[in-house]
Amino acid sequence: MRWIAGSRRTVEAVEGRSLLKSAAMLAIGVIAVTAAVVPVKRGLGARTRPNTTVKDPGIRGGAANVGGMLPRLTAAEQGYFNDGLANFNAVIAIPQGLGPLFNENQCSSCHAQPAAGGGAPGTNPVFSVYQLDGAQNVMPSFETQTGPALVARFPFMSDGVTPDGTVHQLFTITGRSDAQGCSISQPTWPTNVALHQPLPVFGDGFLEIYDNTTLTANMSAVCAQTQFGVCGTPNISGNDGSILRLGWKAQWRSLTLAAGEEYNVESGVTNEFFPTELNQTPGCQLNAIPESGTNFNGLTGQPDQFVGAPTRMGLFMRFSAGPTPVAFNAAALNGQQQFINIGCATCHTFPGSNASMVTPLSSVVPLSQASPKAYTDLMLHHMGPCLADGIVFGAAQGDMFRTPPLWGDGKRIFFMHGGVNGTGLLTTDLLQAIQNHFCAGNSQYPASEANTVINNFNALSATNQQDILDFIRDL
Amino acid sequence: MSPNGETRRWSNSPMLSAGRVLLVMAGVLVVVPLALVIGVQAQSSAIDPGVRGGGAGAGQPLPGLSSSQTTVFNKGKQNFIEVNGVTSIGPLGGATNQTGNFGLGPRFDSNQCNGCHDQPAVGGSSPLINGGLNANLLFGAPYNSDGAINDVPFFETYNGPTVVARLPMQLNNLSLMDGHVHQLFTITGRIDAGSCNIAQPNFPQAASDNDLINRNTTPTFGAGLLEIINDRDILSNQATQCASQATTGICGVPNYSSDGSIGRFGWKAQDRSALIFAAEAYNVEEGVTTEEFPNETDETSGCLLNALSEDHVDYNGTLPADRFSGDPDRFGNFMRMLAAPTPGPSNASTLNGAQQFHTVGCDNCHSSTGIAGSTFQFVTPTSYIASLSNQKVNIFSDVLIHHMGPCLADGVTQGSATGDMFRSAPLWGVGQRIFFMHDGRTTDIVQAIEDHFCNGDGTYPASEANTVIDNFNAATAKNQQDLVNFLRTL
Fold first, then answer.
1. Contact yes or no for A418/A194 (Cβ under 8 A)
2. Total-model pTM
3. Which of A406, B102, B175, B475 is the most exposed place for a label (fewest CB within 10 A)?
4. B294 vs A209: CB contact, 8 Å cut-off?
5. How does the average pLDDT of chain B come out, rounded?
6. B418-435 exposure pattern, b = at least 16 Cβ within 10 A, e = fewer
7. 3-class SS at B338?
8. Rounded to whole angstroms, how far apart are CA atoms B120 and B59?
9. Which residue from A211, A237, A289 is facing B384, i.e. has the nearest CB?
């Protein structure tokens, strides 16, 4: 989707209302706000426009430069990467644990671009699975053939008051030839269903082991740069007290835990982390649970057959290499410098903006004391009511998102998390994605922390703006 | 017999000053039915017969495990018992610790799982001699073994429960939420801890700030049954329970997990499965980093002595494959295949006690399959471990969280469980438990019953148990005693 007049009008209308609201919010904020809440001055920036000649160069051509394993893995580790990848690629039918509720029957269907483990592919894979093998599902209106696969989370339970936040699966196994006797309905979609597109997992092994102190030191440095109006908040794990890092709202602590949860939530495969089916209607629980667990007969088989698939897929993700950028030309090098200068790198942190973002000693040698070029601070930020989806995970409020890593953006098709039903700010246009970071506050949520940076971007010369886009598409 | 029962049994009553009662009434009227706050406790004459004698009624593997499952159970139990040092160059097994038993600290509560989970068998609850202070037969007490120089926090006593410490709010900023476990001990001074030099938390300050709560060890017997109970059975029971709320005052709620299913483990039902519970506890209680929780809980320079994660899949693992997975998988398998506690023999008194347990209404929350008069049933679905399949679960818990009043509230929020809410603690095995309530505040099971009673205040509503406790206190002395005797058979 391009930068079209219709969407401008919509945004301006929102801004007009919100100027009054931000003034009111400022007054309320001074009284009620604690130190944890963002400074209110961010709402005051008037919106500016990018230069009209600037254009997203589009998805980079050439080799994927991603999808492989970390360099220097041992032979044994390479074996587990390949074993985990095979699990990630495996197609799941009922005997393997699909359903009763599911979004997809294969991890790599949604995590596909530009290689297994990646982001959403250009052709929505849920259209290939929703009526597979006789399934009788109706496609929800928010899924489109050429859009990303979107999972649906409900902000509230059916009473409209109790917070929910969990995924409500798109499809059921009802009607499938291997699901005889199961008859259940798809969800009734509420008006405000929050939609999230898949995140790539490449290089996540680096992100899950950064020391907490590395992340909080970076955050402190960012917060001290008051000219950008950016700070950030860690999402703290409930019991171990460390910083959560993965997922759109930094809701997951580790790849292994994410794999366990996703296996049950997205494909309906019960496992030793999440052992029960998410729908327990009689006639629909067709396998012993958990469907993926310790292989007790594996005692005499291969070691890599011993533990359940989530642990094995965790190893695939942990051992996957981060995306490799192409060699920067002069324009991209300038773009990188502008990216730092205007403040993009305050959130989208990388070693060029903070050399201290180094991983600790890891038992996996290539993950050890490394400086991954991930372009994220792994912190939560207020992104304004335009991006807010109303989903709360721990410290992540309805308007807060983890800074998504930008490595691999050169090959990404869809940008932004997804949005709320019908008002999604998903885009395939990188320039639009940058602009979508801007949002004035309203009575419910403060302004986007990115507003100053976006105005900085829009104040740049056309050349500098274009160089930033070219730089990001080299990642 | 309880050593403290008579002096501590009525610890609620000093709070019932007239002014406070008025405040309580005003605060609670909007939240719960009036009937709940007008109860005044009567004294029970029942006497706790004490920890049931005879052999341990728990700790065995599930009946009917296959030989390979039994092998995995036993290996997992070995890991559960193993003592962890800090580094691979350490005191365990001689000059170097090459057994993989490392990763302790920088902060920790104990150096082995069964240091705290040991009553009446490995996997259980707080032992009589506090696990953190217990002189391990081989390696000395965790708090001062191998050169460690920790003070014993004031709230830990040699004969008291093993408790962990949580700070509801941050130690030096009481306006910010905390709620996490703050480990009792550090590795500073240990011969395998290099130059690490960190101080224990300032627990006295936290206590003086009224910002310190303790939690006692929960047993893991029957964990495999608990983790696979169908949500719909829990919710069906909840519907029955809440339908009588007008008369019982009881209506629990689930603590939903991130996948949308119901959480089950821990005092606030904050953990979903034995495996997640194991991985988290390994990191939180011993400081061993895992693939599930890969970072140290303290990252002070000089204290990060191993590569992360310290425990992980053995990439170079060779057969037998039961050494392949990380320790949490092995603990998980051990706990999953631990049988539920076996009740002791019944007699006329305990049979009547079981009836009274239902009549009084205890089983509104401490629900279980097989109680006469109760329609409640937990039956497990089909499991890949045949011994777990289609089993009646006599757990004496609804796996829901309930408001328990300000007397029990610990101010820690975990998921839907707010500061005054706790999971109905499963009562299976309670016959051989030593310490009761989340903080182990009593060894007297009669006191434990009475501790369920609490009026509301301006912060929290009254305990949902008040009506039931009034019912208990209104029962005849014989019925009260029979009920208590029944509990000690579990």
1. yes
2. 0.89
3. B175
4. yes
5. 87
6. ebbbbbbbbbbbbbbbbb
7. strand
8. 8
9. A289
